[in-house]
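User: Sequence recovery, please. Input:
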């Protein structure tokens, strides 16, 4: 079963497709990209394994950097220097007198619990040394033993025992047993956890190796690898969080990347280790383990306790450090024009949200952060290789709006009868009502009442009797009012949702941006959409909204950047293709504009509009002979009704006559439209015939007269 995605519901979706708690049908889930095999952008590299014994510390480096005593709530620091003297590895707490030792308590050859033969120390973790051992009762399989630093930490060990006894997750280290062994220095029994041995590299090794210019994973560390690692860590954290637990000590040293195998096709996998710092959500008690700069401030813990958001903050810092070691980070510092620069910026926005100073403005859950990272991963991978990776958004519903400024339409008759030119850009109102609508998140039955109702007036009628509307109903009313140009009514809906004492929900901010758009305040709208994009960097809709506003403001560079990011990732986003084509055409890159339009999938509802747009682009002002030849080739392949075909043919003939007047070289192949190397006289005759055919479409005597006059004014002059 999977978790219910409806706000406020902690249930799980059963095989029937309905939640076992709220009873509602499951909301659409964004497709979570899974590894697709070694070497792919959505998987982690397979790299050589190391001999486990080579990882043993034969002369262990004893850490004496200081830590909190923790015995019965004691907050004194132990293991710190005094009066210029070096710190001691062993001693007594200066406040409570409890003995402590940072030295390994187990040595090679020790038999722990009459079963586990110690091979030596592997590393020092947040709660003590970690040892490699053999299970003498099970084929000498390798295991890991981890104890606490001293007996004063027994409460932490007990918390760890309760948290991990039943833990079973592919991204979390497995716990096999709990055993005791006498401590060498005190003689008292000390408890140890027996864990699976995970072969691989801790992420701190990966980070240091990549910083040094090495290839710790067998290939260059890239941002896609970091994102995929982060998503697997989030799977582990989500497993804990859903059980009311917080990891507390996320950092690169507590995550291992275990290599897969090319021989059996197994994939490399992240494992979160050393769960000794696990606490219950909201715990404010002493002895909470955390490492600067990953852990949140003490003030936050004192106020809120350890929370989901404190774990996400630590992971955000971890991923930022790993990203700074990637070759992409280094390349972008020297070449900001990298093709994946937009995707890297989106990734940085995810990290920025995860590490915000205000915990309330971080991600609400590990799943939410993972969803955004998943979207960013698709964006980065598509920017790198150009492959379409469209997925269904769980937050925004699909829309059929094209937002093409009529570039994809056959010219209307008014182009000739009223001298109407096509608009250069979609209007702000068209953008506002054409952007994807927000999906509802509540279980309000009113949403079922208006489902699949396209008429905004009908929507308002159906919702009229709801005296205490939910936020979803208010947002739906707001959108309906916007579509009907009722600005004040839309503003009142938003006023009922806005919070004077807290940051507005992104859905409210989104609709504020839409309201600014219909009022023509494009700059204000863009600010609101940027705010939504800061919260949802992995979503397509906010990025598309920012691109449309940037184009409207004349910020062509930013518009082109984000149109490209959207279009490469999701070929169903036709507005991005048409926006990109408009910008390329404005820059004189007619071939580039056509190439973008040709990328429209044949299954898209806008495929025919893209083919028509390509003809319009090719016969636009300044068209060359080759452009016109391509326009004719495409025109002849289009399946248009007679009236539409006559109008588009007239547009091509218009362009051909303009071209013929500007050149002395008549070489051109106009196919069945205007023939090979036509004279100006021949083109005039063909265009005049075209105007006469258009006159048959006239809806009034005035329109008919205009078109006949155009025909007479265009036809070749005779001597009679």
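Assistant: Recovered sequence (720 residues):
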């Amino acid at each position: 079963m999977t978790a219910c995605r409806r706000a406020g519901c902690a249930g799980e979706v059963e095989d029937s497709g309905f939640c076992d708690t709220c009873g509602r049908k499951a909301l659409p889930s964004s497709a979570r990209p899974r590894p697709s095999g070694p070497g792919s952008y959505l998987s982690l590299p397979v790299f050589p394994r190391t001999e486990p014994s080579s990882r043993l510390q034969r002369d262990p480096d004893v850490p004496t950097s200081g830590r909190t005593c923790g015995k019965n709530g004691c907050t004194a620091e132990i293991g710190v220097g005094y009066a210029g003297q070096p710190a001691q590895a062993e001693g007594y707490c200066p406040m409570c007198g409890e003995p402590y030792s940072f030295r390994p308590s187990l040595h090679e050859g020790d038999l722990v619990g009459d079963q586990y033969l110690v091979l030596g120390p592997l590393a020092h973790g947040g709660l003590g040394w970690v040892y490699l051992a053999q299970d003498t009762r099970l084929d000498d399989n390798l295991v890991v033993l981890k104890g606490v630093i001293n007996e004063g930490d027994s409460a932490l060990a007990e918390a760890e025992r309760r948290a991990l006894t039943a833990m079973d997750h592919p991204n979390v280290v497995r716990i096999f047993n709990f055993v005791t062994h006498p401590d060498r220095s005190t003689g008292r029994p000390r408890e140890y956890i027996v864990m699976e041995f995970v072969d691989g590299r801790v992420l701190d090794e990966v980070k240091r190796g990549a910083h040094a210019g090495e290839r710790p994973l067998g290939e260059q560390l890239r941002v896609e690898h970091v994102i995929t690692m982060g998503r697997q860590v989030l799977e582990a954290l989500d497993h804990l969080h859903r059980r009311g637990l917080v990891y507390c000590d996320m950092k690169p040293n507590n995550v291992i990347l275990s290599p897969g195998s090319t021989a059996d096709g197994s994939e490399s996998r992240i494992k979160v280790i050393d769960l000794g710092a696990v606490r219950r959500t909201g715990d404010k008690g002493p002895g909470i383990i955390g490492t600067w700069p990953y852990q949140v401030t003490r003030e936050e813990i004192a106020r809120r306790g350890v929370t989901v958001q404190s774990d996400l903050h630590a992971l955000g810092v971890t991923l930022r450090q790993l990203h700074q070691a990637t070759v992409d980070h280094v390349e972008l510092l020297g070449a900001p024009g990298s093709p994946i620069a937009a995707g890297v910026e989106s990734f940085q926005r995810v990290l920025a949200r995860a590490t915000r100073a205000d915990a309330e403005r971080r991600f609400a859950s590990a799943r939410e952060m993972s969803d955004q990272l998943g979207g960013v991963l698709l964006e980065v991978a598509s920017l790198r290789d150009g492959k379409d990776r469209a997925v269904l958004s769980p937050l925004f519903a699909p829309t059929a709006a094209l937002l093409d400024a009529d570039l994809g339409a056959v010219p209307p008759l008014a182009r000739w009868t009223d001298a109407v030119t096509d608009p250069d850009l979609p209007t702000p109102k068209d953008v506002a009502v054409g952007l994807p609508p927000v999906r509802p998140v509540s279980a309000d039955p009113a949403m079922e009442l208006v489902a699949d109702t396209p008429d905004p007036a009908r929507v308002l009628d159906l919702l009229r009797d709801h005296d205490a509307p939910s936020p979803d109903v208010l947002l739906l009313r707001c959108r309906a009012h916007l579509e009907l140009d009722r600005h004040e009514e839309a503003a009142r809906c938003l006023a009922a949702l806005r919070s004077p004492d807290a940051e507005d929900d992104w859905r409210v901010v989104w609709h504020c941006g839409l309201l600014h758009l219909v009022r023509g305040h494009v700059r204000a709208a863009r600010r609101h959409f940027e705010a939504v994009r800061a919260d949802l960097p992995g979503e397509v809709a906010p990025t598309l909204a920012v691109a449309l506003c940037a184009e409207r403001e004349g910020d062509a560079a930013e518009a082109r950047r984000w149109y490209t990011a959207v279009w490469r990732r999701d070929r169903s986003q036709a507005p991005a293709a048409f926006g990109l084509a408009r910008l390329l055409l404005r820059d004189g890159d007619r071939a580039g504009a056509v190439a973008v339009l040709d990328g429209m999938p044949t299954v898209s509802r806008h495929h025919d509009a893209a083919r028509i747009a390509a003809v319009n682009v090719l016969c636009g002002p300044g068209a060359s002979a080759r452009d016109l030849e391509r326009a004719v080739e495409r025109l002849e392949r289009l399946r248009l009704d007679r009236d539409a075909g006559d109008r588009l043919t007239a547009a091509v003939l218009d362009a051909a006559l303009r071209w013929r007047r500007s050149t002395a070289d008549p070489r051109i192949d106009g196919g069945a439209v205007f023939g090979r190397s036509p004279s100006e006289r021949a083109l005039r005759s063909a265009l005049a015939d075209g105007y006469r055919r258009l006159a048959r479409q006239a809806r009034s005597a005035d329109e008919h007269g205009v078109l006949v006059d155009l025909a007479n004014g265009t036809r070749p002059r005779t001597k009679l």
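The domain at 208-385 is CATH 1.10.510.10 (Transferase(Phosphotransferase); domain 1).
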